[in-house]
Design goal:
By secondary structure, the protein is of the alpha/beta class. Helices cover 47% and strands 14% of the residues. Strand 3, helix 6 and strand 4 form a beta-alpha-beta unit.
């Protein structure tokens, strides 16, 4: 897809398209996104924060006035959009150390989302899911208040997305189709990372199993029809969980990932084994210097490494790249998945090209590889800009797999 804004910065364009994609479920207005983008200095993270924050503040202020005047639908819609704009504002601020402004924007994003959630006719319920002596934040979406067991979707995001953002990426689409939906932030994801310092862990089954335990106790959940969806980096996390958590009736990886370590070693000369030894070595000054050079030249790598140090809880670019080596489905892990699995792929994925096919090839369970194309407007990583199309194709597969009609 042509970069309609930020023609010289694919990173800024992709994140703008991401906000545009949330228009489909009330998370943005086209004019608000464009007018904000036009004020941003291309490539300037400070400008990005300032302008998105200004838009979020304005929209949330309007929502608060609408609520005070008794205009509940207008207030709900405004809070939803403001939540997404605050999320966008803090997106580039993570690193080691983090820009202190990120906490304010993140907390405002959650506050606005919860204000909107309380105004839905079918109230979206914030939940706290028990997890290793603490809780994981999430939201429960019910079709109605009958307590009828329904096919259920458990959803989590990935490297940089929030539980709140999943409202626009599948949660409301599920409710429309008669699904109970439970979304959550796991360790390394924004809620647990911001407020408890919990970082990502590769053994994701130890995250998902407590969530399934929680879901099975809910009257709205049909325990025989629980599906798991992972978005972006969730495309390796969710399959890892499904390899060991066999209560799942279906799995969706949007988009599929097989081995994150491939991204860590691809620019290091020598064999994979030699690259891994360097990444994990007590000292590797030449590699450290090379990573710093890559960050200086490549804005996408710079952001990914800075954010990666934050979510992995490590202090150096090399340590971040080393941490990625543990996020893999190699060694027979993918082959342990038993439930029917949908692997989504993006024709023009700029992050993980080829990985969905690798995952698909290693699966021994019933499997489907689903390609999203540029012609459909869906060719980018996780298909921003084609949200209705994406949800239709994923949920149609789930309907057929789980024996559901909507």
């Amino acid at each position: 897809m042509k970069q309609l804004l930020f023609p010289n910065n694919i990173q800024f364009w992709y994140e703008t398209l991401r906000s545009m994609s949330h228009i489909a479920y009330g998370g943005a207005d086209f004019g608000e996104v464009v007018s904000t983008a036009e004020r941003i200095v291309e490539g300037d993270y400070a400008s990005w924060y300032t302008e998105w924050l200004a838009t979020a503040d304005r929209v949330s202020g309007q929502a608060e006035k609408a609520l005070a005047a008794g205009h509940r639908v207008s207030a709900r819609d405004g809070f939803l959009r403001a939540s997404n704009y605050y999320r966008s504002a803090e997106f580039f601020l993570h690193g080691h150390p983090c820009d202190p402004r990120h906490d304010h924007a993140y907390d405002r994003s959650v506050d606005c989302f919860r204000s909107a959630a309380a105004l839905f006719t079918r109230i979206i319920e914030p939940v706290e899911i028990p997890y290793e002596g603490t809780t994981l934040p999430g939201y429960l979406y019910r079709v109605d208040d009958s307590g009828t067991p329904r096919p259920t979707l458990i959803m989590h995001n990935g490297f940089d997305g929030t539980a709140e953002e999943l409202h626009f990426f599948g949660a409301m689409a599920g409710v429309e189709r008669g699904y109970t939906v439970l979304v959550f932030d796991g360790p390394g994801m924004p809620g647990p990372r911001h407020h408890e310092g919990l970082v990502f862990r590769p053994d994701w089954e130890n995250v998902v199993t407590p969530v399934v335990d929680f879901a099975e106790k809910l009257p709205d959940v049909d325990n025989s029809r629980i599906a798991l969806v992972g978005i972006s980096m969730g495309g390796v996390l969710a399959p890892r969980a499904a390899a060991f958590e066999h209560r799942l009736a279906a799995l969706v990886a949007v988009d599929g990932l097989y081995d994150l370590g491939e991204t860590s070693v691809r620019n290091i000369p020598g064999t994979r084994e030699e690259a891994e030894r360097l990444l994990r070595a007590p000292s590797a000054p030449e590699l450290d210097a090379a990573l710093e050079e890559i960050m200086a030249k490549d804005p996408i790598a710079r952001w990914a490494i800075n954010h990666g140090m934050y979510v992995m809880g490590v202090d150096t670019p090399r340590a971040f790249n080393a941490s990625y080596l543990d996020y893999t489905l190699a060694g027979g892990i993918a082959e342990r998945i038993q439930c029917p699995t949908l692997v989504c792929d993006a024709e023009d994925d700029m992050f993980f090209k080829g990985q969905p096919e690798q995952l698909y090839d290693h699966l021994t369970c019933p499997r489907t590889l689903m390609m999203f194309t540029a012609e459909e407007g869906a060719g980018a990583h996780c298909h921003p800009g084609a949200m209705r199309l994406t949800q239709a194709r994923i949920y149609d597969w789930l309907d057929e797999t789980l024996g559901t009609t909507a």
